[in-house]
């Protein structure tokens, strides 16, 4: 907030204002659209879910089980460490939360390394969607070969503040980035004009990637993101499809918060319709997806050991309001069974995204489990590699 008489001058410098003056800002370019036969897809997930009778809920569960068994591939376990993070992981005295995030980043790096996507060069562009303070990109830069010739782009709609930058300039390891003590990665304000790293403050749904300086016809784009929340994943996939410049040679996105997905944004409509779901079913599916997380938080194994991410903490423990707490017990739906259904719903939603990538890019896409549940309940990543790799 500010005084009314200072509003005009404040808006010129306010970090929270929408930057509509930037050439890459195109309002709602990646938003998606509802279709004529989608029914009441705008209905909120909670209101749609709470109106279901017991029999309607069981019918959804039976349909989910059938689709999962017939259409969804087994999710491969691919948990590996990357040497770039090795020294940080072996540092004595670091806390459990830091170790947890380091292991997640290490495994995501290994997925990029697996198909030689960490080779830099003058045509290579790394784009992190939902970058926040740039922690994942920091480790990507640490691991990339020929980083001095490589362009790194960080995209986030939030306004980042770097109060500790002035104290950490002496930690600068390279003209393009710095690694901060305690493994926090930030981009130094003094490096904003450095042409090989760019931070764009824009909502992904409003980003025309083809208008970003440095994206050329011959650019080879590698896309990454960690816990890209709900519809932001769909905005990102549609963003790279809409780009029209360069070619996407790889994608590694750690998925998160399916309860925040929307039918309008969702890129996998074609698949869901093929298996018999419509827009009016989608609010129910996203509500059921939260069972995967809310159930795990009550399990004995995770109660004492699991630290939730910021995104996971925002998922309500009881995501279906106004439902009698004895309902599931009466229906014979145990916590473990509900968790299983929630994970199957997530896999079905994500399979639609996999098919979207396969149909719109010269890539082979799949889902992998990149860390154990003890590290994060949101432990599935969408990965896509060029068919020639």
From TrEMBL:
GO MF terms held by the record:
tRNA 2'-O-methyltransferase activity; zinc ion binding
Entry's Gene Ontology BP terms: tRNA methylation
Which reaction does this chain catalyze?
cytidine(4) in tRNA(Pro) + S-adenosyl-L-methionine = 2'-O-methylcytidine(4) in tRNA(Pro) + S-adenosyl-L-homocysteine + H(+); cytidine(4) in tRNA(Gly)(GCC) + S-adenosyl-L-methionine = 2'-O-methylcytidine(4) in tRNA(Gly)(GCC) + S-adenosyl-L-homocysteine + H(+); adenosine(4) in tRNA(His) + S-adenosyl-L-methionine = 2'-O-methyladenosine(4) in tRNA(His) + S-adenosyl-L-homocysteine + H(+)
User: EC?
Assistant: 2.1.1.225
Q: InterPro entries given for it?
A: Methyltransferase_TRM13, Trm13
Keywords annotated in UniProt: Metal-binding, Methyltransferase, S-adenosyl-L-methionine, Transferase, tRNA processing, Zinc, Zinc-finger
Q: Which domain of life is it from?
A: Eukaryota
A single Pfam family it belongs to is TRM13
Its biological purpose: tRNA methylase which 2'-O-methylates cytidine(4) in tRNA(Pro) and tRNA(Gly)(GCC), and adenosine(4) in tRNA(His).
- State the family it belongs to: Belongs to the methyltransferase TRM13 family.
What is the protein name given in its UniProt record?
tRNA:m(4)X modification enzyme TRM13
């Amino acid at each position: 907030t500010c005084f009314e008489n200072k509003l005009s001058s404040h808006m010129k410098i306010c970090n929270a204002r929408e930057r509509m003056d930037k050439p890459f800002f195109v309002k709602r370019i990646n938003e998606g659209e509802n279709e004529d036969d989608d029914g009441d897809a705008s209905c909120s997930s909670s209101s749609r879910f709470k109106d279901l009778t017991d029999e309607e809920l069981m019918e959804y569960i039976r349909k989910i089980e059938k689709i999962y068994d017939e259409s969804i591939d087994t999710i491969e376990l691919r948990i590996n460490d990357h040497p770039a993070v090795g020294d940080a992981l072996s540092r004595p005295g670091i806390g459990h939360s830091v170790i947890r995030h380091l292991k997640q980043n290490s495994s995501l790096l290994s997925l990029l390394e697996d198909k030689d996507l960490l080779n830099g060069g003058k045509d290579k562009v790394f784009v992190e969607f939902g970058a926040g303070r740039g922690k994942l990109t920091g480790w990507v830069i640490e691991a990339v070969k020929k980083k001095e010739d490589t362009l790194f782009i960080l995209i986030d709609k939030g306004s980042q503040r770097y109060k500790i930058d002035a104290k950490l300039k002496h930690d600068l390891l390279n003209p393009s980035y710095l690694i901060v003590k305690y493994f926090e990665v930030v981009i130094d304000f003094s490096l904003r004009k450095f042409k090989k790293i760019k931070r764009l403050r824009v909502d992904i749904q409003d980003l025309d990637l083809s208008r970003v300086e440095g994206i050329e016809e011959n650019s080879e784009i590698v896309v990454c993101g960690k816990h890209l929340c709900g519809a932001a994943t769909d905005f990102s996939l549609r963003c790279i499809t809409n780009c029209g410049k360069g070619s996407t040679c790889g994608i590694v996105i750690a998925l998160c918060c399916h309860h925040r997905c929307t039918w309008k944004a969702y890129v996998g409509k074609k698949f869901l319709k093929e298996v018999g779901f419509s827009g009016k079913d989608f609010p129910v599916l996203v509500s059921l997806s939260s069972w995967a997380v809310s159930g795990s938080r009550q399990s004995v194994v995770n109660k004492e050991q699991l630290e939730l991410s910021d995104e996971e903490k925002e998922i309500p423990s009881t995501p279906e309001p106004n439902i009698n707490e004895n309902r599931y017990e009466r229906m014979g739906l145990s916590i473990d069974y509900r968790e299983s259904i929630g994970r199957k719903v997530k896999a079905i939603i994500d399979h639609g995204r996999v098919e979207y990538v396969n149909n719109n890019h010269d890539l082979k896409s799949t889902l992998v489990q990149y860390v154990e549940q003890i590290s994060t309940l949101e432990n599935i990543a969408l990965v896509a590699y060029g068919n020639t790799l």
